[in-house]
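Our platform keeps sequence and structure together, in a single record for each protein. Such a record has a labelled line for the sequence and another for the backbone structure tokens. The tokens are whole numbers drawn from a learned vocabulary of local backbone shapes. The remainder of this section carries one protein's record, kept here as part of the documentation:
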Amino acid sequence: RKLSAPGFQPEGAEEHKRVNHQAMSNVIYAAKTHKTRRIVYCSSWSSYGRQPDNTELTEATKSVAHDRVEASCCCGFVGVNASPVPYFESKLELEERLREATAARGADRPPNLPPERSAMVR
């Protein structure tokens, strides 16, 4: 039986991203419709990608979410060639989409999130 972990393997990556992007589109649309000034989006460390061991993550940490990852070092899956992890990429992309949408509206930005974070990623 084939092991499947949507979002963590190349198989199903596009579907995983499509579903997540559609969900974020729904959130952004609802916020605009109801003139919401602030959205609290709880992402995860995954938006920073697979960092070297003992890396201390801060909002200023450069994301490597689009870097290729050997499957054996991510979630224990073996037998998949190195590739970006769709879950990591999706988390970063959704943060960027939300940041762009709120900046375009002049919405509030949490003080601990630097506006240049998007520029720190490739």
